[in-house]
Amino acid sequence: MRTPSLSENERLDDLMKSGRHIIQNTQEFCFSLDAVLLAHFPRVHKNDRVLELGTGTGVIPLLIADEAARIDAVELSPVMAGLAARNVWMNELEAKIFVREGDYRDIAALYKRESFDLVLANPPYRPVTQGQANKIQGVARARHEFTATLVDVVRAAQVALRFGGHFVMVHLPERLGEVAVALHEHQMELKRLRMVQPKAEKAPNMMLVEAVKGANPGGLKVLPPLIVHEDGGSYTHEIFEIYGMEAER
Questions:
Q1: Are 23 and 6 in contact (CB under 8 A)?
Q2: Calpha distance 80→103 (Å, rounded)
Q3: 90-103 burial, b for 16+ CB within 10 Å, e for fewer?
Q4: CA–CA separation, 205 and 59 (whole Å)
Q5: What is the C-alpha to C-alpha distance for residues 64 and 184, in angstroms, rounded to an integer?
Q6: Low pLDDT (below 50) residues in the chain
Q7: What is the pLDDT of residue 247?
Q8: I need a labelling partner for 190 at 20 to 30 A (CA). Which of 14, 25, 128, 164 fits?
């Protein structure tokens, strides 16, 4: 790993994966559990060409770099795209991960159509009419659909994916119906679904979905829920494993 020079409001975090670290700017959107879960949900193959829509700090490419042949990551924000590129450089992954500043709403202008095996997205969760937007602009863009709607994300994935390619996304359970409709309208069908619950007795607050381009409807596999915390507040064994940590005794 190369030694970075940190600017004001930046911090260096350990990803606990292959010795990799990540620079984050506390005045922008910092990754959280949803990005880590998304990185671990798909089956990534060694020959896969992967695209991430809205990479932010570039955490997902860093976490899956050992599994894929090549990862392209597009990011609208110049600040975040620059940060993601620095993270690639710091971790010496320039031959594997390629960050591009751009707007994935016009994905065909950035990448060749139908050229990816796997597309990943951790998009804004809420329409701009729902909830109160964060006062930090970068956080607001990440949480609310100011720059890209659900349909924008699904359409970009449909254009980028080859026939039979997989689209994996993390989103809100309350929008499952919208997600399923948007996917179907863009020639993709849901094939795997896993709800994420804060605790065993709590309702899910996230969901992980996987769709296949050109697949027939039906055949949805609903996985057991992923429980994040034990009753006492500590992470469950599965979450510790995902983070690459030893469970507390």
A1: yes
A2: 13
A3: bbebeebbbbbbee
A4: 21
A5: 27
A6: 133-134, 136, 138-142, 144-145, 248-249
A7: 53
A8: 128
For residue 246, the model assigns a pLDDT of 64
Buried-exposed string 46-84: b where 16+ CB fall within 10 A, e elsewhere:
eebbbbbbbbbbbbbbbbbbebbebbbbbbbbeebbebb
- Residue bearing tokens 């609208």: 76
**In the structure encoding, which two tokens stand for residue 8, read together?**
């004001």
Identify each DSSP E strand in 4-93 by its residue range. 10-14, 21-25, 49-53, 70-75
d(CA 215, CA 188): 6
The first and second tokens of residue 101, run together, are 């500043």
- Please state, in angstroms and rounded to a whole number, the distance separating the CA atoms of residues 163 and 138: 34
DSSP string, 167-226: EEEEE-GGGHHHHHHHHHHTTEEEEEEEEEESSTTSPP-EEEEEEEETPPS---EEPPPE
What are the distances in angstroms from CA 169 to CA 95, 208, 210?
25, 6, 7
- Name the residue type at position 199: K
116-121 and 188-197 strand pairing: unpaired
Query: In this structure, what token pair is assigned to residue 117?
Result: 């095996």
User: What CA–CA distance (Å, rounded) separates 238 from 218?
Assistant: 29
Residue with tokens 């751009």: 102
Q: Contact 213/190 with Cβ under 8 angstroms?
A: no
Which of these, 149, 23, 39, lies nearest to 80 by C-alpha position? 23
Quote the pTM value: 0.90
